[in-house]
Amino acid sequence: MSMMSVEAQELINLEGERKTQRNLTHSRIRWVMLGLLALFCLVGGRLIQLGYANTATDFSGEARDLITATRPAILDRNGLELALDIRVPSLYAEPRRIIDVEEAVTKLTSVLPELDADWLRKRLTGDEGFVWVARELTPLQKDKIFRLGIPGLDFRTESKRYYPGGNEAAHLLGAVNRDNQGIAGFEKHLDTEDVALLQDLGLARDRALEPVRMSIDLRVQHAMTEQLADSLVRYHATAAAGVLMNVKTGEVIALASLPDFNPNEPATALEPVDGRKDARINRITAGTFELGSTFKTITMAAALDSGVVKLTDSFDARFPVRFGRFSINDFHGKHTILSVPEIYKYSSNIGTIKVMQAFGAENYRAFLTRLGFDDPLTVELPETTRSNIPAKFSEVGAATASFGAGLATTPMHMVAALGALVNGGNYVPPTLYPRTEAAAEALYRPVVSEATSERVRYLLRLNALDGSGSHGNKIAKGYRIGGKTGTAEKVIDGRYSKDKNLSIFASAFPLDAPQYAMVIMVDEAEAENERSGRTAGWNAGEMTGRIVQHIAPMLGIFPNLDATIDQALVPRELR
Amino acid sequence: MIRGLNYLLILTSFLALVGVYALKYQTVDTANEKLALQRHIEKQEGDLSLLKADWAYLNQPAHIAPIVSRHADTLGLAIIGQAQFIHITDIPMRTAQTDDDALTELFKSLDAGVDPIAVLIEASAQ
Questions:
Q1: Between residues A532 and A28, which one has the greater pLDDT?
Q2: What is the C-alpha separation between A421 and A456, in angstroms, rounded?
Q3: Does residue B28 have a pLDDT over 70?
């Protein structure tokens, strides 16, 4: 019994034990389930969180290298490419992965003979992870190197700037460096604008940018460059430059300066010419010159606009003008009493001084300011300079300045001023971007009256018909061209040289409804043959004629040989 | 019943396993395909940029001008002269009276089935 009771007792105990055991298991399972549930909640929560997280999936620029940064294509006004990007392979090496340096050097120099073996050996030895070996290869070179099968060498595609026109618009476009940053010209201007910003944001990489259009007409640019290059041969000139501007919109249609450089190889811009290092500068915007008698146009316009001098007036040009020890005489002296149009036509220094004195040196200085000669150039090139004009003219200073001596300006200032004088009297700042006439009108700054503009047009045309501009006019007959020559003696070692001249022709056409102004400049031109002269009319004037004859049809200007057009240009008081 | 459920669950997990793996490899394949396409596009973009550059170079006046001057003599090329332009209003109107009789004759012969021009051509061909 006792046994039974013990058994029973044990049984009960056993039963109780099992029950506690089961309870324990149950609670353990519950804890585990709770734990798992918590875990699932955690995972689920995280999943939901990830689902809501907004990841920028479209930021492809970030992971890319800076070297693939692209630049927008530059087009001329008709859509012809002036500059564009091409993709080229570049070779790099990982020196720590190169097994046999000697073998790699031998093989590589067989494909790229321009590489120096010692330099290459040094370059490929070491523990570095990345070194450039050769940048901007041709696809053929890439293929050959690929076939060499050297470990540790690889290619990376880079964007390279390419200028299909070569030297043609070099000074306008400028150049870029190896990392595709603009270092000169319009390219540098673009970087200061918005390309740099886009590249910084990582948006300009490997992505087509909107092409940039310029105001340049490549055909006209070519015609001008061709004539300038021709002048270096024909007149044995050392340099030549030219600029053509639309007088109504201020758009620069062509701008060239020789000697130039190849923008595809920017280093050529620094190559000296005859030992002169600055020979390849942009003479139109970055060089200041004494533009000589072309300033007589400005003086006449100032005089006529002041109202003090009229076209019907006459001035005594019989005797040289004396200032103390100095005396100023005429180059082609007539030594007689000259009317205002005659002073202009014969380019009389004496007469011009008298005209200037009639309305005052101070007024003349103020007029130069009004025509923008003191302002910095607005044209979108970094290579610009300011004019060098005394702030206040002395008596002699004003006299020489009236015929363009003793003051230096850029040809760009001149073409803009001339544009204002012929277009009806409104100064419009020159630009390299296309601009409509309506947009330009908003920028117009009146400088002279319409009546003065009309008289300036008459004087310019008169000089082309009877004066020093007739050589050019003969060639460009029918295109109603008019202009003023200037032959400035060059300053060499602080003295005016007698045999080295700078010849300038500042012109406008067609003068019955002016559309374009042009300044052509030839440095140290010689006579073409025994029968021709050395002055501007023979070289810069004839070049202008040839350029106009070539480009006028491109610009939609119709030749008109009707003589009544010239008669209509004569102002009422002279008819 | 539990056992049946267990088998079912094992089967589903196995199927899910196979499915997930298949999906994974498919994704990898697609990614590779995408990469290959991207490479292809990049290469073609590169080729295109070269072709564009070629086209731009060939269209440059600086490239065309030497060709023109080389063939200027044989082809009689020159810069267009002022005299070569003429206004449309300068072209004279037809002044001479039309030859009515000849026209009537022509129409008559055409109606009769004889084309005088065709006759001329045939005559010259023989």
A1: A28
A2: 7
A3: yes
What is the helix (H) or strand (E) element at residue A187, kind and residue range? helix A185-190
- Cβ atoms of A536 and A468 within 8 Å: the answer is yes
User: What is the number of domains present in chain B?
Assistant: 1
User: What's chain A's Rg over C-alpha atoms?
Assistant: 38
| ipTM metric | 0.71
Helices then strands (H, E): number in chain B? 4, 0
Tens of pLDDT, residues A457-489: 999 999 999 888 888 888 888 899 999 999 888
CB contact under 8 A, A559 and B59: no
Contacts of B62 in chain A (CB under 8 A): 165-168, 222, 225
Distance CA B70, CA A10 (A): 125
Q: Which two tokens stand for residue A273?
A: 């010419």
Per CB-CB distance under 8 Å, the chain A contacts of B59 are 80-81, 164
* Mean of pLDDT over chain A: 86
Average pLDDT over residues A252-271: 89
- The pTM of this model reads 0.78
Contact of A286 with A410, CB cutoff 8 Å:
yes
Cis, peptide link before residue A559, omega less than 30° from 0: no
B107 burial (CB, 10 Å; 0-12 / 13-18 / 19+) is: exposed
Beta strand spans in A151-248 (E) = 153-162, 175-176, 182-184, 212-213, 239-246
Q: Is A206 exposed, middle or buried (0-12, 13-18, 19+ CB in 10 A)?
A: middle
Mean pLDDT value of segment A163-168: 89
Q: What is the DSSP string of A248-280?
A: TT-BEEEEEEES---TTSGGGGG--BTTBTTTT
Share of chain A above pLDDT 90, in %: 38
Query: Could you tell me if A493 and A217 are in contact, meaning their C-beta atoms sit under 8 angstroms apart?
Result: no
Question: Is A2 one of the catalytic residues?
Answer: no
Tell which residue, A397, A161, A382, A400, has the closest CA to residue A282: A382
Paired residues of A462 in beta bridges? none
Amino acid at A361: A
Asked whether A350 and A317 are in contact (CB, 8 A), the reply is yes
Distance CA(A244)–CA(A234), nearest Å, equals: 22
Separation of alpha carbons A77 and A249, rounded Å: 14
Which residue segment(s) compose the domain that B72 sits in? 2-125
Q: Which of A293, A402, A453, A468 is catalytic?
A: A293
Q: Which of A368-372, A374-378, B86-90 has the lowest mean pLDDT?
A: B86-90
| CB burial of residue A514 (10 Å; 0-12, 13-18, 19+) | buried
Question: Picking from A187-191, A333-337, A441-445, B36-40, which range would have the lowest pLDDT averaged per residue?
Answer: A333-337
CA distances in angstroms from A33 to A19, A30, A46, A138, A510, listed in the order given: 21, 5, 19, 67, 96
Please state, for a pLDDT cut of 70, what percent of chain A lies above it.
92
Beta bridge partners of A36: none
CB atoms within 10 A of CB A429: 16
Q: Does A85 touch chain B (CB under 8 A)?
A: yes
CB pairs under 8 A between A and B: 67
Which segment, A221-225, A334-338, B45-49, is predicted with the most confidence on average?
A: A221-225
How large is the average pLDDT for residues A70-93? 87
A41-50 per-position pLDDT tens digit: 999 999 998 8
Angstrom distance (rounded) from CA A505 to CA B109:
68
Q: Which residues of A touch B88 (CB under 8 A)?
A: none
Tokens 């008596």: give the residue: A395
